[in-house]
Amino acid sequence: MTTNTMTASAVGAGTADTVRYHPMRDTLTLLRRNIKNQLRDKVGVLAIIAIPTLFLLLFVYVFGGALGKTTVNLGAHSYIDYVLPGLIIQTAAAGLIGVSTHSAIDMTEGFVSRLRTMPVFGYAILLARVVSYLIQTLVSMAVVFGIAMLMGLSSTADMHNWLAIIGFVAYVSFALIWLGLAFGLAAKSMASASNGPFPLIFLPFVGSGIVPPETMPTGLRYFAQYQPFSPMIDTVRGLMLGTPIGNSAYIALAWITGIGLLGFFWSMKAFKRERPS
What we know:
This protein has 277 residues and is mainly α. It is built from 12 helices and 2 strands.
């Protein structure tokens, strides 16, 4: 296994000790710890699945009769076909609060400080947190897709399209998790860690997720068309329904990459700032 080494002066001695780090082993150890903690948090796991599921039931069975009239000419056989992509992207956004909160707990309750006194690869905690929440988010999306199929989802996607959808939503989730991680590492309190990402959860609703932007008032329509989540939703919808995607995929990938880079570099900066001088 590849290791990183660092030479540090031994306490109370004039000799130097070589401290060996094992990035892969340390990351896997912390990943197991994170997954166990997430599974113990029954409320948190239930929330990330229940929230998009409740929205799915609400919009399809309560508002679907009225809202579905605005989507009949957009390639959707029923309203559930139109609304599901928006709720899948909203599921990715919902994970922001969980990763932000748990990252803030690690920082404020001394777990990170303790690891820094041990021969542990420093960034393993960040990598483990990202991977654990990526797994949780993808499982949540799979559950939402399964429920939608039981509710009558009709998709024309072939195997290649489904693989593209999986890869795309995984990339969206990966980028958003880095942003949520940055919120948690930079937060000054638990309240700011949980409330900071909250507005992003609702952005998919103020886009093309629920109704076509063309049906909105002028000012809101421009916002809905050009905000980052709309091209992501349109890309998933096009792959799922076989409708034209246009430039949405390229625009979405640009937004996702930008969000991911912002989250990554912000996380690195916030994590380094907490290091003892």
